[in-house]
Design brief:
Layout (H helix, E strand, L loop, with lengths): L1 H5 L10 E5 L5 H14 L5 H11 L9 H14 L23 H4 L20 H10 L2 H6 L27 H9 L3 E7 L7 H9 L10 E5 L2 E9 L3 E6 L6 H4 L1 H12 L5
Parallel strand pairs: 1-2, 2-5
Antiparallel strand pairs: 3-4, 4-5
Pfam family, one: Peptidase_S10
Family: Belongs to the peptidase S10 family.
Protein name: Serine carboxypeptidase-like 19
Length: about 270
């Protein structure tokens, strides 16, 4: 898109910038800071964290010795006890209501270990995913979306493997390229996300070595702190969303809408 825009190719897209939330960017940042994040959230003890630092020496992606591998296995087991997308939420099944017989399709479920006919509890965040099945297959919904009868079969919320080869181990160089060429960027993180901890996002942003414009401060909605933010040179803004998970708008839609609207209007958060 960027190359086409700068070459004035048609259709012309007037690209001004981009915003990304809870972004997977570089595994060495995400995995390494997941350990620090788990310690900060109280999921692992001081002793386990100290053992990880001592034996892994800052590299939690590829353990270099047996002691490091063992402590990382302990950490992974402890993290498995919680919902890493949002550490405060109940660990619930992710399900849709009908069972499937096809073993190949079964593996594409959001949670491979559960059956689709097992519904999450009413107090589960994922109950909304369960209800989505009924809503999307409702005739009134399909009529409103303009879907002609008989053209689309049953809608099922599933997670399929994407048909591509992952050949880009890190997207940091792309962020550096875009921001230094004048494109505005807003990077935000739900502060209760352990899949892509806000610590890791802050770390790769700092690795760009941009100078600070507006230092760390709270940003507000309705007189309350909705998160914290910092701006850097080259029009790069980072913000946390208080109470947000992976991804932040799913958990805190009002706050994220206000944040995005201010940024799109070129106003401070």
């Amino acid at each position: 898109m960027l190359q086409g825009t700068e070459k004035r190719e048609q259709p012309l897209i007037n690209l001004k910038g981009y915003l990304i939330g809870n972004p997977i960017t570089d595994p060495k940042f995400e995995k390494n800071f997941q350990v620090q994040g788990a310690h900060g959230f109280g999921i692992i003890s001081d002793q386990i964290y100290e053992a990880a630092m001592k034996n892994c020496k800052g590299n939690y992606v590829k353990p270099a010795n047996q002691l490091c591998a063992e402590v990382l296995e302990t950490i992974d087991n402890l993290i498995s006890e919680i919902t890493d997308a949002h550490v405060l939420y109940k660990k619930c099944v992710v399900a849709t209501p009908k069972p499937i017989d096809d073993a190949v399709r079964r593996k594409f479920l959001l949670e491979e270990s559960i059956e689709r006919n097992e519904a999450p509890g009413l107090d589960c965040f994922t109950y909304g995913y369960y209800l989505a099945y009924f809503w999307m297959n409702n005739r009134m919904t399909r009529d409103a979306l303009g879907i002609k009868g008989g053209t689309v079969g049953e809608w099922v919320r599933c997670k399929k493997e994407l048909p591509y080869t992952q050949d880009m181990p890190s997207s940091i160089p792309y962020h550096l390229n875009l921001t230094t060429r004048g494109y505005r960027a807003l990077v935000y993180s739900g502060d209760h996300d352990l899949q892509v901890p806000q610590l890791s996002t802050q770390a790769w942003i700092r690795s760009l070595n941009f100078s600070i414009g507006d230092d760390w401060r709270a940003w507000h909605l309705d007189g309350q702190a909705a998160g914290f933010t910092i701006t850097y040179a080259n029009n790069l803004t980072f913000a946390t969303v208080k109470g947000g998970g992976h991804t932040a708008p799913e958990y805190q839609p009002e706050e994220c809408f206000a944040m995005a609207q201010r940024w799109l209007d070129n106003k401070p958060l």
